[in-house]
């Protein structure tokens, strides 16, 4: 997806974009996204409520209604025209507006909101040196806690993959990966 004026205007029109997320968007705008191979596309983060990957890609008609309806702007269109969850500049709040606007049935209502992503804390985390705790303090589900080593630990049972920890991490030591 090419990040042009329409892209940034969309991000600025949402309910909440963090200053850090906006700054990160401007810094990363010049880097074109890597194309996804077919096997990587199956592992790419799908919108909340998406059917399993093979059924999702068969059922989705690429109408982009879910992308247009997302108030947080965390749904983007991949190079094949399918919606993709892109928690880079704002977190997903689980409003399920994307599900309500899906005419094809590729997105189904969820009894328990979950994006299917979980945070992975990288070795560059500065929590041990500076006692940062920004990811722990901002986690809405309180799924992060400080381990004995001084690094954040993730409770996968409590986490629903909103991405708030990723947004709040100053040094980008957190990445979101699909949870099996």
From TrEMBL:
Record key words, sorted: 4Fe-4S, Iron, Iron-sulfur, Metal-binding, Repeat
SUPFAM superfamilies on file: 4Fe-4S ferredoxins
Residue span(s) of domain 4Fe-4S ferredoxin-type: 52-80, 83-112, 117-149, 150-179
Pfam hit, one: Fer4_7
Gene3D superfamilies linked to this entry: 3.30.70.20
InterPro entries, alphabetized: 4Fe4S_Fe-S-bd, 4Fe4S_Fe_S_CS, Fe-S_Ferredoxin, LdpA_Fe-S-bd, NapF
Domain of life the protein comes from: Bacteria
Protein name, as recorded: Ferredoxin-type protein NapF
């Amino acid at each position: 997806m090419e990040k042009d004026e329409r892209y940034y205007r969309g991000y600025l029109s949402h309910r909440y974009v963090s200053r850090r997320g906006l700054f990160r968007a401007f810094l990363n705008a010049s880097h074109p996204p890597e194309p996804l191979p077919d096997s990587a596309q199956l592992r790419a983060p799908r919108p909340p409520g998406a059917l399993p990957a093979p059924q999702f890609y068969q059922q989705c008609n690429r109408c982009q209604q879910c992308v247009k309806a997302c108030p947080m702007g965390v749904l983007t269109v991949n190079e094949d025209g399918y919606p993709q969850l892109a928690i880079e500049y704002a977190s997903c709040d689980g409003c399920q507006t994307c599900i309500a606007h899906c005419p094809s049935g590729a997105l189904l209502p969820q009894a328990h909101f979950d994006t299917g992503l979980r945070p992975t804390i990288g070795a560059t985390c500065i929590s041990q040196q500076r006692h940062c705790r920004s990811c722990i303090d901002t986690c809405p589900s309180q799924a992060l806690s400080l381990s004995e080593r001084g690094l954040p630990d993730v409770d996968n049972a409590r986490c629903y993959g909103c991405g708030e920890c990723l947004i709040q991490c100053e040094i980008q030591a957190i990445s979101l990966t699909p949870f099996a």
